[in-house]
# Entry
Amino acid sequence: MTADIGLFEAIYTARSLRHFKSDPVPQELITKVLDAAIRASSGGNTQHWTFIVVRDAEKRRQIAAIYRKASDYASAVYAARPKPDHLTDEQFAQFLANSGYLWDHMADAPAILVPCLTKREPPKRASLPDVVQARYADHLANVQRISGSSIYPAIQNIILACRGLGLGTVITTNHILYENEVKAVLGIPDNVATFALMPIGYPTRKYGPLTRKPVSDVTYADSWGTPWPDATGN
Ligand SMILES: Cc1cc2nc3c(=O)[nH]c(=O)nc-3n(C[C@H](O)[C@H](O)[C@H](O)COP(=O)(O)O)c2cc1C
# Structure
């Protein structure tokens, strides 16, 4: 067990880790990670999440093969996109190399965590007051848009808990294109959606520091376009 680290140290160093030792992760540590996950908020406090911990080697192999197939597709999309301006050529090459490594090595992680949400049927339109019915189409479009919002806070807790416990992980979503195949491997019912594949294990690479565009580049004061001061107050 690693020594406790501070919250901000965890936030600043919990980088995406994709290279893992083959050592198994003790079950109680995974339970602890999940106990952090379920402290997250969910819309209406519904807690309609389920987490599947895949340790079975054959299932990991099958899921990794689906991830590989999906990543071939995703990489073609990446290749057609320009490099983000804030990344140097070296940083971008590093990102591609690290992501590419996982395409072939997802199954090396001793556990793959699959965060899921059970789909919730919206109320029937006719059961609602007229004023709600009038905007219901917009409401339903918004529900579609925010569908992941009840699982991503839990996923971030998983990332931070892994960091705190000396584990590594990364959120990946490439599999979604072939999600039904992942669901078939794991016996996930039709009314449940998967949101990520998160390999978890003891990392062979170092934690952060995480470099990001500075706050002043991504923040406005009071209205769009009004600069937020940089770290020096200017
Ligand atoms: C919504 C989302 C989807 C992602 N999907 C993948 C993925 O499919 N494969 C992967 O290797 N990394 C994936 N990532 C990780 C990002 O590539 C990573 O966070 C980013 O490159 C920054 O890396 P860093 O956190 O180590 O600085 C995803 C991240 C997010 C937030």
